[in-house]
Design a protein that fits this description.
The complex is a heterodimer. Chain A is an alpha/beta fold. Chain A is 42% helix and 13% strand. Chain B is 71% helix and 0% strand. The chains are: A alpha/beta, B mainly alpha. At the A-B interface, helix 1, helix 3, helix 4 and helix 17 of A face helix 1 and helix 3 of B.
């Protein structure tokens, strides 16, 4: 009798496990098309929003979300923040799991070009083709953004999938105005003047530059201005690398590597490799260093860390010809996209529509220091005023065009972080040859 | 005639029914995904549900093992994986044994120390990494200040690849030594006290007691720990993600699988997801673990038979 009861209990447990597994497999998540019925306005909705870590942006979004929820009390915003390095991974995971409504997505870049062989599409293209991003071409708020931005940074195959919220420059240098004045250093407009400025500061025991070396990318991104000064047409640079007309160890490139060595070893402060990306603006604002090569998105963090701190922003002078140093290189930064399978389409569109309202957008642009992508927005912030003289010379940077050939080695990039103390190289020519060899290996493998 | 414990008729199915939930869970979350991974390794899967998947045969393996400088970088990662495994296994095993012997003494406070040594195991890689990132902050962290006192300095995780790699080994050992210790403690507690008493009566020194009583009778725990350490260290990747990220000269195979699968290799936020390629890399890692794991198990099993009979 006891054995019979035991047998029955065990059989029931197993049966229930089987049924629940089969039920999950047989009931796929509902595929909500873009025009599916959304909950009525009065129905309580939780709108899930995903953004990347950018302290002034996150602070703005928290305030915006609060105001939005006060205006639409039935909509609660559940915003998650992830490290920028992890954004694409988390976006993919949550879109696939149908666990997010509105996603922060960087401007569409790194598309395959006709001269590239055997390359994979960028992640945003794969998401669109798999049906995870909603076509928002017919949304009224699209018209609030300038047409070029919609075309360049948010469209694919004639449809709009993202509104891009701003351009950033990543090839400039912040400088400490008071420190420059106190040490009688003029703002450098050429490479030689920059070297001299750093030598003056070093002689006064003042570290010349800092960056968030712990995150890796701030070191090499900080030197993108060096690449830009020598190769102002970065789209042509990428094509030249692929077609072989430009090599990373030709005379011009070796000049770039020589300068990157100076940047990494003589200009960057000792210990920069241990500074987190988010901590670097605060370190600069504290007056610990004279300069901080970095993107315009750091401006708000610098002002928040030390509101009375006097700073300026200039293009990284990578050339001894001042005319070569007039460009700012950057990218289309954050944008909004909507999950194609969202059950809260109306709420998501309302959210984007409110955000895209010119008054709200202006407040956003002021908060994060983006170069606006709405034609009615103005550069009201200090960073806006600093970059205004160079806006006509804003160019999309190398990083937004480059797709590495399969088989290329790990060193196939113009990264200053390959030099000691961040990397292992000490000799410019040796590194130049290694970088070209790594790239060539990939080019040859795809012939 | 030996009785059949579970009876006759339907009751004889009881052991199989009782085993079934465990086997079902294993098939669902371990073997099933592993088989799926091996199939994906022959495709160009991105990992995005709904994206087209094409059968590409051995292309992923050709690319991983033979295509250009990238394949040589992969072999370098394989080499680093073996180095990581060697140092983590030997040091973690040794330290775990020493600590287990110490905390197995019948002294006041041993429970506190057992808890202390085991605590890192339950923290998780993110907390483990955060603790050590702060501890080893080169600009004013505790260890940096101590080194300053001795007139030296270090970039720790931001330093040269070899130094950064060595620090990850240290953190891996710190994070997992507690598990090794617990397994040894359970082994030590199965050794009868009478054997130690007899050895002492015979005049054996501490080292002789360890050599002729403790060490042989710890064989099952030794074998378990060695196998777990070898397999665990070959597959390690989380601390590399948290502490180093994608840094040239530091990747191990486990981290390469993650970085490739989730577009972390190019430095661009729009990098492609290549989970078919990552699956191929993970199969290569699987065979590495299988070969070394089987070899270790064979040697250890023979040793156990020789010692314990």
């Amino acid at each position: 009798m006891r054995k019979t009861v035991l047998f029955s209990i065990v059989a029931l447990v197993i049966l229930s496990m089987l049924l629940s597994a089969c039920a999950s497999a047989a009931t796929p998540a509902p595929a909500v098309e873009g025009d599916a019925q959304a909950p009525a306005a009065a129905e309580k909705v939780t709108l899930k929003v995903l953004v990347h870590q950018n302290p002034p942006m996150v602070e703005f979004m928290e305030a915006f979300n609060k105001t939005f929820s006060e205006k639409y009390p039935n909509i609660t915003i559940d915003m998650a923040v992830v490290n920028a390095n992890d954004l694409s991974t988390v976006t993919q995971t949550r879109l696939t799991a149908n666990d997010v409504d509105v996603v922060d997505i960087f401007g569409f870049a790194n598309a395959a070009q006709s001269y590239m062989k055997n390359v994979d599409p960028p992640n945003w293209q794969t998401l669109i083709e798999a049906g995870y991003l909603l076509d928002i071409s017919d949304q009224p708020f699209i018209k609030n953004y300038d047409e070029a931005t919609i075309q360049d940074a948010g469209s694919y195959n004639g449809k709009v999938y993202s509104v891009n919220l701003g351009r950033v420059s990543y090839s400039g240098i912040y400088y400490n105005k008071d420190m420059f004045t106190a040490n009688n250093v003029a703002v450098p407009t050429t490479w030689s003047e920059l070297v001299a400025a750093c030598e003056t500061f070093s002689a006064a025991d003042i570290p010349c530059m800092t960056a968030g070396g712990k995150d890796g990318w701030p070191i090499f991104v900080g030197a993108y201005g060096l690449t830009g000064a020598l190769y102002p047409d970065q789209a042509a640079l990428v094509e030249g690398l692929w077609t072989g007309t430009i090599k990373w160890n030709d005379a011009k490139a070796v000049e770039m590597w020589d300068k990157m060595k100076v940047y990494a070893q003589d200009m960057m402060e000792s210990g920069a490799s241990g500074i987190a990306g988010d901590a670097a603006p605060g370190r600069f604002a504290s007056g610990a260093v004279a300069m901080f090569p970095g993107g315009t998105w750091y401006a708000s963090a610098i002002e928040a860390a030390e509101p009375s701190f006097e700073w300026g922003y200039i293009p990284f002078p990578g050339s001894d010809n001042p005319d070569d140093n007039k460009y700012l290189f950057g990218k289309y930064d954050q944008g909004w996209a909507v999950a194609a399978k969202t059950a809260n389409k109306d709420a998501a569109m309302l959210y984007l529509s409110e955000f895209s309202d010119p008054a709200n957008y202006q407040a956003f642009a002021n908060a994060v220091g983006f170069i606006p992508t709405q034609p009615t927005a103005t550069l009201d912030t200090q960073i806006g005023q600093e970059v205004a003289p160079y806006l006509a010379n804003f160019r999309v940077g190398y990083e937004q065009y480059w797709v590495a050939p399969k088989g290329a080695g790990q060193y196939a990039n113009p990264f200053a972080s390959y030099f000691k103390p961040f990397g292992t190289y000490d000799d410019s020519q040796e590194l130049a040859d290694k970088v070209q060899a790594d790239l060539q290996s990939g080019l040859d493998a795809n012939q | 005639m030996i009785g059949y414990h579970f009876g006759r008729g339907r009751a004889k199915w009881s052991p199989y029914l009782l085993l079934f939930p465990g086997i079902f869970i294993y098939l669902l979350i371990a073997l099933g995904p592993s088989l799926a991974t091996s199939v994906y390794s022959f495709t160009n899967a991105t990992g995005i549900k709904g994206a087209p998947i094409e059968w590409i045969g051995l292309d992923n393996y050709r690319e991983f093992l033979f295509m250009g400088q990238a394949s040589l970088d992969n072999y370098a990662a394989l080499g680093r994986t073996l180095v990581f495994c060697f140092f983590v296994t030997t040091i973690q095993f040794t330290l775990g044994l020493i600590v287990a012997i110490l905390v197995n003494q019948k002294l006041k406070g041993t429970n506190f120390f057992r808890t202390l040594f085991f605590m890192p195991v339950i923290l998780g890689a993110v907390i483990q990494g955060l603790i050590w990132s702060l501890f080893l902050y080169p600009l004013g962290g505790p260890v940096a200040r101590l080194l300053e006192f001795f007139g030296t300095s270090s970039e720790f995780f931001g330093g040269q690849p070899t130094e950064a790699f060595a620090w990850v080994i240290a953190v891996q050992i710190w994070a997992n030594m507690g598990t090794t210790m617990i397994i040894f403690i359970s082994g030590l507690q199965t050794i009868p006290d009478e054997l130690y008493e007899a050895a002492r009566i015979d005049g054996a020194s501490g080292w002789q007691v360890f050599q002729h009583v403790t060490w042989p009778l710890l064989t099952p725990s030794v074998n378990t720990n060695l196998l777990l350490n070898i397999i665990g260290s070959l597959q390690a990747w989380q601390l590399f993600l948290v502490l180093l990220g994608y840094r040239n000269g530091t990747q191990v195979l486990g981290y390469l699988v993650y970085a490739t699968g989730f577009g972390q290799t190019s430095g661009s936020v729009t990098s492609s997801f290549r989970q078919g390629y990552a699956a191929a890399a993970s199969i290569v890692l699987f065979f590495l673990v299988l070969i070394l794991g089987l070899a270790a198990q064979t040697v250890l099993q023979r040793r156990e038979e020789r010692i314990l009979g």
